[in-house]
Amino acid sequence: MFWTYWACLILAFVRFCLCIPGCPPETTSLTAYQTTKYLTSPNYPGNYGVFEERLSCSWVIEAASGYDDVIIQMEVLNSSLEYSLACVRDSVEIRDGDKEFHRSLASWCGATWPEGPLSTSRDKAYIGFSTDFKKNNYMGFILAYWLEKKPIQLTHDRTWGSVNYVLLGVGLTLLLAVPVCFLGLYIGHDVNQRRSVVISERKSGCNGHVTTRRKTS
Ligand SMILES: [Ca+2]
């Protein structure tokens, strides 16, 4: 523990003397505007791991104040990291929000990176970059970021969702109402038929009684 503390202190001193950037201990805050800005890994395009050390950098990109209903757009322009299965050694991860636990938008390592713009659903994005101790002699990454107005399509989706729910309710009501109506008509018709039969039976019975009385007198 004692030696680790002194090793870190000496490393920080050497970094400072040689002007070699590392990862700041805290998350770095960046502001996005409509004009494009750039984020790079430490020492880009030089090797991100100048010494045998573990790196852990994080950045939060937030839309500049005064912009409402905006999202963060990012595009990875170039990247070269150590490759490992499931990117367990060196990797970059972009998340939809300002926290490490927010939904992942992309993660990568090796010589490939996500193509095309990456969009958040809100006005913040989190970028994390971490490495292991060895084979950090790679260039790292550079990504462009800017803010854009939130697509109107998202609002329409919510509206259409409500309309769809209403239409579904009306459809289900009609679906249930039609059989009930037919059932009611059938029952009504059946009752009327039975009533007609009873009335006609009563009429027949009355006529028979009158005839009998006439015969007796
Ligand atoms: Ca590595």
Automatic annotation (TrEMBL):
<keyword id="KW-1015">Disulfide bond</keyword>
<keyword id="KW-0472">Membrane</keyword>
<feature type="transmembrane region" description="Helical">
    <location>
        <begin position="165"/>
        <end position="187"/>
    </location>
</feature>
<feature type="domain" description="CUB">
    <location>
        <begin position="23"/>
        <end position="148"/>
    </location>
</feature>
<keyword id="KW-1133">Transmembrane helix</keyword>
<keyword id="KW-0812">Transmembrane</keyword>
<dbReference type="InterPro" id="IPR035914">
    <property type="entry name" value="Sperma_CUB_dom_sf"/>
</dbReference>
<keyword id="KW-0677">Repeat</keyword>
<feature type="signal peptide">
    <location>
        <begin position="1"/>
        <end position="19"/>
    </location>
</feature>
<dbReference type="Pfam" id="PF00431">
    <property type="entry name" value="CUB"/>
</dbReference>
<keyword id="KW-0732">Signal</keyword>
<dbReference type="InterPro" id="IPR000859">
    <property type="entry name" value="CUB_dom"/>
</dbReference>
<protein>
    <recommendedName>
        <fullName>CUB domain-containing protein</fullName>
    </recommendedName>
</protein>
